[in-house]
């Protein structure tokens, strides 16, 4: 299969175009965007058809040309960790927002629409394991990359958060440059997978 023939989901197309899934469905139903339907009734879009739509609508905001920074949401109950990560990611060209607990993370994810969430495992109210399960279990947020961080070196924590759907794991004591490199790798892999 050629790259242009690769099939993507409505969620991936919506994220790529920075619109809602409802907008993608509307474009499909009106004939603006070509799509097929699976046996289960889900729309699937050829990458080349999405590219054609982006070009025809001159949707320059859909392309990463250095104009739009990647968005990272930092979720940690420790203000000093949040501040350290916010400063580091902003210095490296990211748009950053933060949340102090799991409930706030849910709200900020909807409002901010991050490309990636850096998620602490142990927080009050709602821990990182449950936040990860909820984000990965929801069609509108499942494509967001999650990089878990923890001050606890327990291997069980790493295995558990990865089984919840996290895309990576780092200890808080690790070099921030290594964390930023991992975030860049995860975001690049998402872009390659979508378009």
Characterise this structure.
Helices cover 46% and strands 17% of the residues. The chain is α/β, with parallel strands linked by helices and 195 residues long. It has two domains: 3-62, Multidrug-efflux Transporter Regulator, Chain: A, Domain 2 (Orthogonal Bundle); 71-194, 3-Layer(aba) Sandwich (Rossmann fold), CATH 3.40.50. β6 (116-120), α6 (128-137) and β7 form a beta-alpha-beta unit. The longest helix is centred in the C-terminal third of the chain and has 19 residues, at 176-194. The protein starts with 6 loop residues before the first strand and ends with a helix.
Gap from first CA to last CA: 15 Å
Structural class: alpha/beta
In the CATH hierarchy, the architecture of the largest domain is 3-Layer(aba) Sandwich
Number of distinct helices: 8
* Approximate strand percentage: 15-25%
Please mark out the parts with pLDDT under 50 across 5 or more consecutive residues, or reply none: 63-67
| CATH-level-4 superfamily name of the largest domain | Response regulator
For the sheet with most strands, the description reads: 5 strands, parallel
**CATH topology value of the largest domain:** Rossmann fold
Helices and strands, in N-to-C order? Answer: EHHEEHEHEHEHEHEH
Please bin the fraction of helical residues. 40-55%
Oligomer: single chain
Radius of gyration: 18 Å
CATH C-level label of the largest domain: Alpha Beta
Question: What shape does the CA trace take?
Answer: elongated
Strands in their spatial order, largest beta sheet: 5-4-6-7-8
Chain-averaged pLDDT? 84
Number of domains: 2
Say how many strands there are.
Answer: 8
């Amino acid at each position: 299969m050629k790259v242009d023939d690769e099939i993507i989901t409505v969620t991936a197309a919506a994220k790529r175009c920075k619109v809602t899934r409802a907008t993608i469905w509307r474009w499909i139903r009106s004939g603006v965007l070509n799509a097929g339907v699976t046996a289960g009734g889900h729309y699937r879009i050829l990458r080349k058809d999405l590219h054609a739509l982006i070009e025809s609508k001159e949707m320059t905001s859909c392309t990463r040309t250095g104009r739009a920074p990647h968005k990272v949401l930092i979720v940690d109950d420790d203000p000093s960790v949040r501040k350290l990560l916010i400063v580091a990611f902003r210095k490296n060209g990211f748009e950053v927002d933060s949340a102090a607990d799991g409930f706030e993370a849910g709200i900020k994810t909807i409002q901010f629409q991050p490309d990636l969430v850096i998620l602490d495992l142990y927080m009050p109210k709602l821990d990182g394991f449950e936040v990860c399960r909820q984000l990965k279990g929801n069609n509108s947020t499942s494509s967001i990359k999650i990089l878990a961080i923890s001050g606890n070196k327990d291997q069980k924590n790493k295995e558990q958060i990865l089984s919840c759907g996290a895309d990576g794991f780092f200890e808080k004591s690790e070099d921030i440059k290594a964390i930023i490199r991992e975030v860049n790798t995860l975001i690049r892999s998402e872009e390659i997978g979508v378009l």
